[in-house]
Structure formats: structure tokens, C-alpha cells
Amino acid sequence: MESLYALIMKIKVSDLIAKFFETKGMKYGFGIIGSANAHIFDSIFYNTSIELICNHHEQACVMAAQTYWKIAGTPTFALVTAGGGSSNAITGVLSAWADSIPCIVISGQENPKFITPDHELRMYGIQGYDSPFAVSKMTKYGARIMDPKQVLYELEKAWHCATTGRPGPCWLDIPMNIQSALVEEDDFVRYIPEVGDLDQEGSILQEEALANAVTKTLEQLRTARRPLIWLGVGVRMGGAASEATRFIEKLGIPALVSWSAIDLLPSDHPLVAGSAGVYGQRAANFILQSCDYLLTIGTRLAIPQIGYEISELARGAKDITVVDIDLTELKKYPQRFTSPICADAGKFIKEMLVQVAKKPLPRPKEWIEWCGQIKNRFPWIGPEHKDKEGYINSYRFMDKLAPLMKPDQIVVTDMGTALLSGHQALPIKPPQRLLTSQGLGEMGFGLPGAIGASIARNRGEVLCLNCDGGMMMNLQELQTIVHYQLPIKIVVFNNDGYLMIKHTQKAVLKGRYAGTDKRSGVSCPDFSKVASAFEMPAYQIRTWKDFDRLMPKVLDAPGPVICEVFMDPEQFFHPKLGVSIQPDGSLISPPLEDLSPFITRELLEASLAVPILEKSKKLIAPMLRELHANEKTESSNSLKNKLANLKEIG
Ligand SMILES: Cc1ncc(C[n+]2csc(CCOP(=O)(O)OP(=O)(O)O)c2C)c(N)n1
Ligand SMILES: [Mg+2]
Questions:
Q1: How many CB atoms lie within 10 A of CB 367?
Q2: Which of these, 240, 262, 403, 570, could form a disulfide with 346 (CB 3.0-4.6 Å)?
Q3: Ligand 1, from 415, 495, 568: best to mutate by most atoms within 8 Å of Cβ?
Q4: What is the number of the ligand 1 atom nearest to the C-alpha of 472?
Q5: Residue in 452, 480, 456 with CA at minimum distance from that of residue 560
Q6: Do domains 4-199 and 389-566 have the same CATH topology?
Q7: What class has domain 4-199?
Q8: Which CATH class is domain 389-566?
Q9: If one looks up domain 202-377 in CATH, what number appears?
Q10: Ligand 2 centroid to residue 500 C-alpha, Å
Q11: Ligand 1: nearest atom to the Cα of 394
């Protein structure tokens, strides 16, 4: 009798895991069952209030966990089984790692008696392999739990590592018979954070050191003639998203946003300069290259943002201050990052607000005016985006879509057209959100990303901008959407295959297509028929008339919808940093301000507060005349006159 009582007081490890997640505030998790994780599935399903969303591919579970975190603001878990179940999750884990997203992946595993600790065996028992080791280069912390008493310790440690410092995914591998073991509650080992558990913890500036770094930075902003701030998603991660607009207004300094921080500031704010980069907005790139002091906060300044030639980044600025929580990122380009500051972006911004309230900065009025003129001169939609007969241009689509969006619209994009047009031409106003996979850039992110965001809003509405190729990489998730009746409006840009890669083939392989369209090996199904197989309504847009008639219906539909948009299968993605082939066959890699299609050298010169580079003068630009044929030279001259004054003061 006594031993039976003792048994009842013991906790099943899988129940402890489920309770742990519940106490961390998780309302939803994502998973796919197998024999190796069945105990945990059962415990979460029957013994907690957490709803387990069952995807149809493990990569989708982790992708959904990413957008869940972005919208809910709290991490969740992906629960996968052994073998292929866990290896399928790896793309999602790498993607979360690249984008600094906290989540916990739990994988089921073969029983310990088959496991060798030294990685010698390729496979353990049935389907087992060393999954934490396999993902060790893309997780902040990973462990296999071989002792049931260690479960709580490992969960607490994984949570701490995932959510502290620069966030990221953690992975716990739990053998089946550990999941089902019974442990006395008092026997569970607890985790107390230790120095050294997190890399670089000691390097992050705090309190007085942080305040001093802020004072120095404000001095630099004070003395600059053309100061510019570049905000990244670290600002949101640091808990300062709600302060972002007030921040730039209090400082009174123009600001760029990285692609992952587009939804931090209203695109139409007079101080918002847009997003610069290889696929940047023309005005944003001019402003970046013209500033004389650059302060970046919470952005890792990836190549798509800063271009290929680091020495040419913000080339009008002698000094670049980079604020990042990750010391390694700060050491990336020592020749150009002249003042690196290791700090939490949110804390840095909050301290700046405190100090600037005591001692305001002078307003760089002429510079702000100049930035405004450049933005007016180069709107996001230009002559390069005109529609081709029979098709609608994807950039114009974004422009027409924006006014139809809801004030709190969540937009999730896949790659290709959806990513580029979505990030170059869709205006966003917080609390609207724009989410995608930035670092890994994996096709197929759109559908699971939309699922995670919708679930985070308790089955809320999401607009998913997708492409024919991207749809096919996680098509099975349509059933997850239908099963949970998620009101996700899916726009599919249909362009006969892989348009982005067709352009690569045009640029470097003389336009020989291989594996990029129907004739060269890749095709996509009729998405209206796909929609009907999943019992979803379908719409097709080929003209602006269709758009006006159908798009409001798509956006107002109560449930999931697929809407195909037929675009030119050869449409350009513009503007973009390209290369220029010279008459002698040599290649010139233009600087960041010189985006394609090229503008006249005269206009380029007039649009910069720094002299144009010699190599820009050499570029031959067949599209120049065509693009600016109807522009009167006076307009460029008057801009030049207006700017001349500023150049002198700069
Ligand atoms: C998982 C994955 N496989 C391959 C690629 C390489 N890739 C980048 S864009 C692209 C084509 C995208 O086609 P689609 O989704 O239809 O967009 P489009 O460019 O046609 O608008 C490919 C194959 C990738 N980014 N991700
Ligand atoms: Mg395509």
C-alpha cells in the first residue's frame, strides 16, 4: 500500500515537460507525432491547455514556431520524432538560428541502451542518430537527456539560452523510456544560470558603461551634418518596438530600416528613409551613401543590405557606429565599423531617449529636407515597373494592395517575387506586420509562416504573399490551414517557375534556362484546381479590372482563400544592384547608390551629397535613355541646384 502511494506521488517525465511549457505561457505548440515522441504528445494533448497544431512536415513546425514568436512575443516549441522527423526539422532550425529566433525543439529518440555516446555508430537502434550533435552548429544549446532527473534542468537551461542575449533555437533530444519514466518531484535537478552558459555575456555593456557609450554616440550625432540611423529587428527583440517612432522623432534624425524591421516604423513617416540594399529602394540607397555619420542599432548589416564592397558602405561617412548584442557581428568588418558597441538594442534606445530628453539634439533641417526631396524624386513605383501587355506588374500590385490592408494586417511572404516586391514596394504602418525568413531565404516559408502567425493571433487573419515555386515547397500545409480553418489569404504570383533564378541565368549564363520553367524541367500545377482539392475558394487575377473586383473579396473572405496573380514570366525585379558589362566584355560592379536600371549620370550626381565614383562614370547604360526619355532636364537641373548648397555644407 505504501509503495503504491509513493508511485502515485511520482511525476511522469512527459507530463513534466508538458507542464513546463504551460508554465512558460505557451498556448500553442507545433508538432508531428511518431512512436519516439508519443508520450510527450499524449501529455500535452491530454494534461495541459496547450493546443498542439499538427503540421504535415517538421520543417513547417519550426517555421510556424518562428512566426508564432514574432507575433505572440513568447517562444513556443516544435515537437518532432526520431529519424526523418527530426532531420526534417533542421531547415526550420537553421532558419531560426539565422534570424535569431528563440524556440525549443524536442526530438524523440531511441532508448538509451542502443545509444553510444561517442558518435561512432551511424544509427542507433531504430531511426536513431545523434540529432543534437547534428544541429550543434545552429543551436544556442543542445542536449540529449539520458537521466530522467535531468529533464527539468535541461528544459530550464534551454529556455534560458534560447531567450537570453541574442536569441536562438535550442534542441533537446529525449529517448522514449526517459519520457515515460516516473520521478519523485524533489529529485528533479534545477538549473541556475552560470557564467559561461551564454557566449559573450560579459561583453554586453550595462548601466554606466552603456550610458557612457550612449553619451559618446549622441555627441557624434550632434556634430554630424548629415546623420543617419539604421534600425534593425534587434530593436523589437530588445523590447523597444513601441518606442521606435518616438525615438526617431525625439532625435529628429532620418532613419533607415532593415528588411526585418520594416514594420517597426510607418513607411510614410517623413523621417523614414526606407530600406537600403542590393534590392533597396533607390532613395534609401542615395540617403545611405550620402550621410556623413551612420549609427546602426540592432541590425547585423548583411550583404543584401550593405552590398558587396564593404569599403563603399555609407562612403560619405567617416565614422560608422554599430550597436549589436553579438560581439562576433561587431568584429565582422573592422575596417568599416569604426565604433562598435556591444549592447542590447532596446536598452541602448531607451538610454538614448533618457539622455536626449535632458539635452536635445539640434535638428539637421537641411539634411531632412534633402532626404525628403530625394524620396519624392524616386518613389518606390517608377517607370521601370510599368505593366506588360496582358500581365500586371508585381510592384504595382503591392502599391494597389496597401490601401486595402487592415490596420493590423499581418503579411507573411515566401521568397522570389513575394519577397522582393513585398519588401521593396509594400508600405507598412505599425501595428501592421511584415514577416519572412531573412537569413536562410528558404522557399516554402510562406505557408507555415502564415500558419504560425495566424495561430499566434488565436486563428487570426493573415495575408500570405507566395509564389508558384514557393507554394510547391510546402504545399502540404494547405491541409493544416484547412483543418484548423485558419483565415489565411494566399496570393500566388504565377510566373511559370523560378523567375529569380531565370534572371541569374540571364545575367551569367547567356539566358540559358535549366530547371527554371516548364520547358526546362520545372512546372507547377493549376492552383485553382489545387484549391478545390483542399476545398478552398480560388480566384484568378490577370488584369487590374480583376484586381478591383476580386481583391476586396479575397481580403474579406471569412476563411482560407487562394488567389493566383498572373504576372509576366520574365518580369524584372527593380531596382537592384546589378553588374554592368562594358563594350570590351569587362564587368563593373557598381556602388550601392548606382542601382539598375541605371539613371543618367547627371541625375545620379544630383542625387548624392558625395561625388560620384569614377567607376560609375564609366558605366554604359542602355536603359538610361528609355527610362528617362520623358523627363525634362530642368527637373534634374533644379534638383541639382537645390542640392548644390547642401553639398557645400556637407
Ligand atoms: C528551399 C530553397 N530551394 C532553392 C532555392 C533557390 N531559389 C531562390 S529563388 C528561387 C525561385 C523562386 O521561385 P518562386 O518561388 O516561384 O518565385 P519567383 O522568383 O518565380 O517569383 C529558387 C529556386 C531557395 N531559395 N530555397
Ligand atoms: Mg515563380
A1: 24
A2: 240
A3: 415
A4: 15
A5: 480
A6: yes
A7: alpha beta
A8: alpha beta
A9: 3.40.50.1220
A10: 8
A11: 21
- pLDDT per position as a tens digit, 168-200: 999 999 999 999 999 999 999 999 998 777 877
Read off the C-alpha cell for 244: 521606435
Kindly give the number of the ligand 1 atom that is closest to the alpha carbon of 418: 21
Identify the DSSP state of 629: T
> Where are the domains positioned within the chain?
4-199, 202-377, 389-566, 580-645
Can you tell me the mean pLDDT for 496-513? 95
Q: Which atom of ligand 1 is nearest to the CA of 471?
A: 15
| Band of pLDDT at residue 650, cut at 50, 70 and 90 | very low
With CA atoms as reference, report the closest residue to 84 among 120, 124, 34, 125: 34
Ligand 1, pocket residues at CB < 6 Å = 414-417, 441-444, 467-470, 473, 493, 495, 498-501
Residue 632 has pLDDT above 50, yes or no: no
- In tens, the pLDDT along 208-228 reads 999 999 999 999 999 999 999
CA distance 135 to 132: 5
The pLDDT assigned to 497 comes to 98
Print the SS3 string covering 188-243: CCCCCCCCCCCCCHHHCCCHHHHHHHHHHHHHHHHHCCCEEEEECCHHHHCCCHHH
- φ, ψ of residue 390 to 5 degrees: the values are 90, -5
How many helices (DSSP H) and strands (DSSP E) are in the chain?
29, 22
pTM for this predicted structure: 0.95
Pocket test for ligand 1, best of 392, 475, 500, 566 (most atoms within 8 A of CB): 500
